[in-house]
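Sequence only, no structure available. Ideas?
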Amino acid sequence: MKKLIKLFLLFVVLQTANSQWEPCNNGLYGAWVNCIEMNENLVVAGTNNGVYVSIDKGENWSAKNSGLEHYDINKILIKDSNIYIGTLDGGIYYSRDDGDSWITKNSGLENLTITTFAIQGNDMFVGTKKNGFYISTNNGDNWSKKTITNSTAGVVTSILFTGGTIYAGLSQEGLFRSIDNGETWEKKNSGRLGDIGVSSIAINNGKIYLGTYQALYISVDNGDNWVSKINNGGSFYSPVYDILFNNNDLFIIFGDELIHSTDDGDNWIKDSEKTTPQRVKTITSLGENIFVGTEGSIYITQNNGISWTRKDKGLTNSLIFSIVTGNANIYTASYRNGIFLSTDTGDSWIEKNTGLLPDLPMRISRIIKDNDVLYAGTDGDGIYQSSNEGDTWVKSWMPNNSSISNQVLSIVCRDDIIYVGTYSGVYSSFDKGETWEEKNKGLTNKTINVMYNDINGIYVGTQGGLFYSSDQGNNWVEYYDPYSSPRVTDIVVKDNNIFLGGNKGGGFRVSRDNGASWTPILSLIKLYESSVSSLAIGDGYLFAGTNNGVFLSKDVGTSWIEVNDGLSNINVFSLHVTDKYLFAGTYNGGLFRVKLSDFGITGVEENLICKQNYLYTFPPFPNPATKEVKSLVYWNMSTDIETDEIGIYNIYGAEVSDRSKISFDKLSSYNGYLIWNCAGIETGVYLIVIKHGTESRTIKVMVN
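Reply:
I predicted one. C-alpha cells follow.
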C-alpha cells in the first residue's frame, strides 16, 4: 500500500511540474495603503504587500519589490534621490534607483519593526516598536541607539524637529522633549494631556499639534502647556493618526475618517461619505496635490478636499473575498473595492459598483448568482442585488433591528429562497428580499461563516461547528465533531464525504460517513499546519486554499501535494473552478489563475475533443425544484443528444416520468440545458439518467 501511495504522489508531482500560476489583475485594482511620500519626481506608496511607485503624480502605479523580503510597509522617507522604507519585522530597506532595487540598512538596529522616520540636516532618526529610537549620521549605513530618559515604554511612534528641539511621541507615556540632540529628555505632559499615547505630531505657524489616542492637542509654548480641541461641543474620543496642513487648512485622520478644520481646530467639517474617502490610513501633500491612502485605494484632491479622484491604476493588492461565475462572466468581490466583472476569463476587469452605498466602493464579503440575479453581501450594509449582470445594484436587505448584525458572512439561494448568514444567525426571504425571517432554531452558535447547498438541505459552518437543516432552515441539527476548535470556514460535499475548512492543527477535517465521524487531514504536515479558508471539489480533484497557498488532492482527500509555483501571494482566501481554470483570490495580493490541464485535470471542452462519447453534466438548478429543473450538459457530437435514451426514476428504481417531459435548450452543437418539466411530481428525490453512446450520467434532483 505504501508503494502505491508513493507511486501516486510521484505521478501527481510529474503531472503538476509545469503548472504555473499567473496574476490576472488588469483592471482589478486596489490596495491597503499604509503610507505615502513624494517629491517633485515621484510618489511612493507603502502597502501591506509591497511598494508602488508613480512617476506621473498617481495616474499609473508600478510594483517595486525587487530585493524585498518583508512586504508590510509602515513608513517611507525620501531623502534627496534616496528612498527609505520601514517595514514590519524587516527593518529598513533602501533604494537609490527609484525603487527598482532594494537593500537592507539594519546595522545596529535591535528591533526591526519601524514605526516612524525623521530627518534633521544629515542626521536620520527612526523609531521602533521596542528599544526607543536610533540615529544615523551616514545615510543609514549604521545606527546608534538613543535612550529616552525617564521613559519605560520605549515605543516611539512619532518624531518632530523644530529648530534645535526634538519632540518624541510615545505610545504609552505621552510626549518627550530634548534640546541637546537626544542626549537628555523631559516629559511635556502637563494638564489634561497626561500620559496619553501619542500617534502623530505636526507644527504650523509656531504651534505644535499633537495627535493622541484620545484627542487632538495644541501647544503655543513649545509643549509646556496643552489645550484640547472640541468637536462642535463634544470631545474627541478616537485616535488622531495623522495630521496635515494645506493652505492653513488642518486635516486629521480621526479614527479612520478624514475631517478638516478651517479655523485651527475650533470647528470641524465632516464631508459626506459620498465625496470623502473612507477608512483612511495616511495623508500627505506636495503643492496643491493632497494624497490619501485608504484600506482599499489612493485618492487625490487638488481643491483642498472639495472633491476627490480615485487613482489606483496598477495597484494590484486587492483582498479577493469571493468569486462566482454566471453566463460566461466571472465576478469577484473585493473586500474594500466592490464588485468587478470579467468577460474574458480574467484577462481584464471592469468595476460594477453603481448603486452600492456609499458611491465610493464598499467592502463586499460575499457574492453569489442565482439564475439571473446576483446577490452581494456587505460588511455592514446588508445585501444588495442586481438583475442586469451587475450594471446596477439595489438594496435587498438591511436589518431594522439594532440587535441583528448587518454584516453578511455568507449567502445561498435554494428554490427561490435567499438565506443569509450573519453574526446574528440565519435569515431567509421567500420574496426576493422584500421581507425576512429569523431561522435560528437549534443553532447554538450564530456566527455563520459559510453556507452550502446539498441535495436535500443546507449546511452552515459556524465559529462553533457544523449544522444541517432539511426543512428550509426551520430547524437545525448539530453534527458532533470532536475537534477542540470547531470553527468552520468552508464546506464541500462529494458523495458521502464532507470536507470542512478550519484552523491550523487539525481544523481541516473530513467525514467519510455523512457526518457520523470526523478525522483531521494528516497526510501532509504543511497542510495540517495551515488554516484552510476555501475549498473547491469536482470530478477527480479537491483543492484547498490556505494561508500557505493551494494544495491539491486527486484521490478525494487521501493524498495531497502543494501547487504554488508562480503564486506570489500564498495567503489564499477564495477558490473558484471554471471549465478551464482554477482561480485563487488572495489576502491583499489580488487574483491568480492556473490552467486545470496543468494538474492533469481536463476541462470540459478539451474532454469533448479527446473522448469519443463524452458526456458531462453540471449540478441542476433550482434544486429543490417545483415546476422545472435545468442542468447544463456537454456531449460529444458523434450522436444527437436529443435522440439519447433518457429516463426519470425515483430512488426505488421505478420510472416516474417519460421522455416527453424532457426538452433541450441548445447553446451550441455540443452543449445546452436539459430541462425537466416536473410540475405535478410528488415531493421526493429523483434521478435523471442519460445514456450517450458508451457513457451515462445521473442527475439527482429534489422535487418539493
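The chain has three helices and 65 strands.
Hope that gets you unstuck.
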